[in-house]
Amino acid sequence: MPARISGKRPVQLKEEIAAFKRRxxxxxxxxxxxxxxxxxxxxxxxxxxxxxxKPFIYSYYKNKGELxxxxxxxxxxxxxxxxxxxxxxxxxxxxxxxxxxxRVARIIIENQRYISIYLREEKSLEPEDARAIRxxxxxxxxxxxxxxxxxxxxxxxxxxxxxxxxxxxxxxLTWIALWYHEGGSWSETEVVMDALTMxxxxxxxxxxxxx
Length: 211
Fold this sequence. Notes:
The chain is mainly α and 211 residues long. Helix content is 73%, strand content 0%. The protein has helices at 9-36, 43-50, 54-58, 64-88, 93-110, 112-121, 127-153, 162-174, 176-179, 188-203. The longest helix is centred in the N-terminal third of the chain and has 28 residues, at 9-36. The termini are far apart.
């Protein structure tokens, strides 16, 4: 007797196809925004790279600004997600900080183009979109600051101002997107390990960080 087919499967498949199409639009748009600049790039150019019509893009994104927002918020959204996951696991503040730095550094490298676009094109975002991303970044810094403060209270870190230290740490990680080059003299692993070493020296007990 044939297995009964769930009524949810066609809906799930439709959602997966839609997600794939949105992702492909983002990939091609991010390539053009990165290489040609946001202002120079047109939706016609994005459609040409996909070999589709411009109305196809409008069926998933209402305008170029929405595309830019989707690209710009990707890096911080993923970074925030791995930060929250790292904070939830068992271990000391040091263990959690190491996990955060390593995972976020890899997220930044994997999404380098998207993060570079944000750093370069933030001024082109709609004001409410720019604010939404700043809120996410502030939340990231707050959570990281809380972790650093807990580490200080446990005697694991030597930081005078955990909230400012959190901003320095997140800035150090973010700027990887601007200078890392795939196939360059430093491998991804070397960059991640260097970032981890720098952060751990920054928070080491006995030498209080002064922002």
